[in-house]
Design goal:
The complex is a heterodimer. Chain A is of the alpha/beta class. Chain A is 39% helix and 22% strand. Chain A is built from ten helices and eleven strands. In chain A, β4, α4 and β5 (138-144) form a beta-alpha-beta unit. Chain B has 13 helices and 37 strands. By secondary structure, chain B is an alpha/beta fold. The chains are: A alpha/beta, B alpha/beta.
Chain lengths: 310, 604
């Protein structure tokens, strides 16, 4: 993957088809870093180091407005890293994550080939871990479905990334998502204040999640939630009648797609708004991640969350 | 609203399809995995009322669209509001038969009917196509003013006409018009005897009928006036019969001269004897006192008056024929006086014409008979003797039995009338100056000489067919098709005017009277034109019966005069609803699409 096309801005499915998670994640991070002027040591910390062009997703606090006023160029200030963050990525590997909109083909859905939510989330996790490690942050991983499947404590050592990658290949796809337990496990892995990133489709009960989030915030952790969604889950493509079955709870809902599509879209927007409202109310950042978007977009969201930390 | 093709309404059964789909939609069995099914369930739960209403709305729209399309296919037409009427093909059938000349309330019924036509024509517009069809089948078209002029000139027919055919013509006119709004209106006196068979009308065509609902006044009419025989030599009788409730007085006239008066009982035949001084073909009338329908109070007849013919019966004719001639001579129907006269003889002894010829009783004489026939120029020969029991068929000779007969074989193409047949063979033939019988006048050969029909038949043959004054009387209704007698060149009317005749047939004069056929310079027969006696029976159909006279689903019988005039253009305002219904169906489908597509526009 050359530098002419940055991998972090490439179509996820096409990119994933080119290699294993390890390779793809490296391309993504390299591309992402190239967008940061190839300066992995430059972040948004205390000591000023350099300027670079503004990119969408950059924190507006670091835009140099004087330069923008003088030269009509938008640049952001970069600073030397000073701290060593301890971050844990909590990845949902339940069965609902192993799904893509291609499974709606019997209804005439014409979606392009897309990654499952899990595949997308795994590449995103690997990329985020690599990015954090390159900034000399300690990175851990917790995978969960109805229980915690694997837990990798945060480390900043060289070679720790391969351990994270190896954990990603461990089995999962349970029939439920027990995020509270996983989040508590992640908190236990971090001995001091740190960053916890939850990557999940959030097909779970929000009340328990809210209670856990409040606990994490009370412990001083910063939490970011990346809500992974397939486009078909957002828009419900296709036509005709079908019995829609939840692969985890076996909930069966008969519906005519054309008839219910509008109401479904409204409901999804309501759910997103509810998650966003609930998480913001407890001080947790929340972003939706759609699996047809380039990896650079959610990576930048997560990276921005990290940059807000000391 | 009426449907011109109602069987297409069965298509509305297709409305069950969206209905069943709506009711059975939850049974469709495609199953897909969908992790966000909880959102789907929540969407249905949260929006269940909206979804149910929307589904119900879609179902109703689809059912209505199907029903509207089915109704459009059934070609609906309905009365729609608003002033005026759509451009219309209107055929007005005016029954101007003789019976409509009856005077009711001091005014001829026809005048009232004409006034109604006048009112209808007054409401016609320039965009309408209007025809006036009368009972004689005459069709008048054109602008409103032109038709009004025609209407003013219209008079009652002298006969029955044919109202059924007139209605059929009117229907054909409006159906060929190509216009959407079609209407046939019928004005009649509703006479039972004149409209006996239903008019064949395409189902659904709007037909509006008016007939007065009051009873017809009592009527008297001359039902029969007939000279018996048609040729008087010079005496004869007139048979008369009068329809009515009471006896009535009559007057009999020959030409302009009254030859008799009297009183006759109703519905009974009376015979009037006379020996007038007139000679040749003459017309006469029987006339009764006038009543509400004057046109049938007079009836015409024709007769020929002249001296009796001289007849000589030869011995070979047989004793029965000779005795019959003697009887006629005794009654002065024939004479034996001066001149050769008419011969009644066996064919083998015939010397001259005119002659009534029988075959010889002895079959050996058949050769001589045939030679005599050839010598006399008669284009017939006697063939083989055929002995078989058979019954003769022919005027005056029906029922006469024949035991043996000689076949009558034509020689060349004879100009002759066949007066009677036995089986398929000619048995009695008549030509110029001769009447040829196939069996001898003997009881063992045929019952003719001993039958009651023999003497009248013989009288008719001698006084009409073989008399030196040829010709006979034909009867016809006004305007009826009549076969032209051979040799008749002109038709002379009662006032003396003459009309040239050509072709095999011609239409009888529309005015009743006695007309004479002219050949060269002399009368050779008479055509008596009288109205059909059925026209004198004025009883009327009930409304239901009138409705059955029109085999159409769209028939309306309106007894009230003003209401009928008001409804005359009902068919016009009954406009086709095909386009509005299709537009409505299209609109419903558009609404259905709009209601169904908001969710279909989202990104797939």
């Amino acid at each position: 993957m050359g530098t002419a096309v940055r991998a972090d801005l490439h179509d996820p499915a096409s990119l994933a088809a080119l290699g294993h998670v390890e390779i793809v994640a490296r391309w993504i991070v390299d591309g992402f870093m190239a967008g940061l002027h190839r300066s992995p040591r430059k972040g948004f910390s205390v000591e000023f180091a350099d300027y670079r062009p503004y990119q969408p997703g950059d924190d507006l606090r670091f835009v140099d407005w004087k330069i923008a006023a003088r030269s009509d160029r938008w640049v952001v200030r970069q600073y030397e890293e000073e701290t060593n963050l301890r971050a844990t990525i909590v990845l949902d590997v339940s069965r609902s994550m192993a799904w893509s909109g291609a499974q709606l083909r019997p209804l005439g859905s014409t979606q392009a080939v897309r990654l499952t939510k899990l595949a997308y989330a795994e590449i995103l996790t690997a990329s985020l871990a690599l990015l954090l490690l390159r900034q000399r942050d300690a990175v851990g991983l917790v995978r969960f479905d109805e229980r915690v499947r694997s837990a990798v404590p945060p480390r900043a050592r060289t070679g720790h990334w391969r351990r994270v990658l190896a954990a990603l290949h461990e089995p999962g796809s349970g029939l439920a998502s027990s995020a509270p337990e996983a989040l508590e496990q992640a908190a236990r892995l971090i001995s001091r204040r740190g960053l916890i990133v939850l990557v999940s489709d959030l097909l779970m009960e929000p009340d328990a999640v809210e209670r856990t989030m409040r606990g994490l915030r009370a412990m001083g952790h910063d939490v970011a939630v990346l809500h992974v969604m397939d486009p078909a889950e957002q828009h419900l493509g296709g036509t005709g009648e079908a019995l829609f079955v939840d692969p985890e709870s076996r909930l069966e809902v008969p519906a005519s797609v054309a008839d219910v599509r509008s109401a479904y879209r409204a409901t999804v927007q309501e759910v997103i708004a509810e998650w966003r409202s609930m998480l913001h109310s407890v001080g947790v950042s929340y972003e939706t991640v759609v699996t047809d978007r380039p990896f650079g977009v959610p990576l930048r969201r997560a990276f921005a969350a990290r940059q807000r930390l000391p | 609203m009426a449907f011109l093709a109602p069987w297409f309404l069965l298509l509305s059964g297709a409305a069950l399809v969206p209905l069943l789909i709506h009711l059975l939609r939850r049974r469709i069995g495609v199953q897909v995995e969908f992790p966000a099914a909880r959102y789907l369930a929540r969407a249905e739960r949260d929006h269940s009322r909206t979804l149910r209403l929307r589904n119900l709305l879609l179902m109703v729209l689809r059912v209505l669209a199907v029903v509207l399309i089915a109704m459009a296919a059934a070609r609906p037409a309905a009365h729609v509001g608003g002033a005026g009427h759509a451009p219309t093909a209107l055929a007005i059938v005016l029954d101007n038969s003789l019976s409509t000349a009856v005077v009711e309330g001091g005014t001829p019924l026809l005048d009232g009917l004409k006034q109604m036509v006048h009112d209808v024509l007054a409401s016609a517009t320039a965009d309408d196509r209007v025809w006036l069809v009368t009972a004689d089948g005459a069709v008048r078209g054109g602008s409103g003013p032109a038709l009004l002029e025609e209407l003013e000139r219209l008079r009652a027919l002298s006969g029955a006409g044919n109202l059924r055919d007139a209605v059929a013509s009117a229907v054909a006119l409006v159906e060929a018009s190509g216009m959407d709004a079609r209407q046939v209106v019928v004005l009649t006196d509703g006479q039972r005897s004149a409209w006996t068979e239903p008019a064949p009308i395409r189902s659904g065509l709007s037909v509006l009928v008016h007939a007065p609902d009051r009873s017809a006044p009592p009527n008297r009419a001359v039902a029969l006036a007939e000279a018996r025989p048609a040729r008087w030599t010079p005496r004869g009788t007139i048979g008369i019969r009068v329809l009515g409730a009471d006896s009535t007085s009559y007057r009999m006239a020959l030409g302009e001269r009254t030859v008799g008066r009297g009183t006759v009982a109703p519905n009974e035949e009376a015979v009037i004897r006379a020996a007038p001084v007139e000679r040749g073909w003459t017309g006469g009338t029987i006339e009764i006192e006038p009543d509400e329908l004057p046109a049938d109070n007079i009836r015409h007849f024709a007769l020929w008056i002249g001296p009796p013919p001289a007849v000589r019966a030869a011995p070979g004719a047989g004793s029965f024929a000779r005795n019959a001639v003697e009887v006629l001579r005794a009654s002065e129907r024939v004479t034996d006086g001066g001149g050769p006269g008419i011969a009644v003889a066996s064919a083998d002894e015939a010397q001259r014409l005119p002659a009534l010829l029988f075959p010889p009783a002895d079959a050996v004489r058949i050769g001589a008979a045939n030679r005599a026939l050839e010598r006399l120029g008669i284009p017939w020969r006697y063939g083989a003797l055929r002995r078989e029991a058979a019954v003769a068929r022919g005027a005056q000779l029906d029922g006469v039995t024949v035991a043996a007969r000689f076949l009558l074989v034509p020689h060349g193409v004879p100009v002759a009338d066949t007066l009677a047949r036995v089986g398929g063979d000619a048995w009695v033939v008549s030509g110029p100056g001769y009447v040829l019988v196939g069996s001898p006048a003997a009881p063992e050969m045929t019952s003719l000489p001993v039958s009651a029909a023999f003497l009248p038949w013989l009288t008719d043959v001698l006084t009409s067919r073989l008399h030196t004054e040829p010709g006979r009387v034909w009867h016809a209704a006004p305007g009826a098709r009549v076969t032209r007698p051979s040799g008749a060149d002109l038709l002379e009317g009662p006032a003396g005017g003459r009309t040239a005749l050509s072709g095999a047939s011609f239409d009888a004069p529309p005015t009743p009277g006695t007309y004479f056929y002219i050949q060269g310079a002399r009368r050779v027969g008479a055509l008596v034109v009288n109205p059909e006696i059925e026209e004198s029976h004025l009883e009327r159909w009930s409304a239901d019966d009138l409705r059955r006279r029109v085999a159409s689903g769209g028939v309306t019988v309106e007894r009230d005069r003003d209401a009928w005039v008001r409804l005359a253009f009902q068919g016009a305002s009954r406009r086709s609803l095909i386009v509005p219904l299709l537009l409505a169906a299209l609109l419903l489908l558009g609404v259905e699409m709009a209601a169904a597509t908001p969710s279909a526009r989202v990104r797939q």
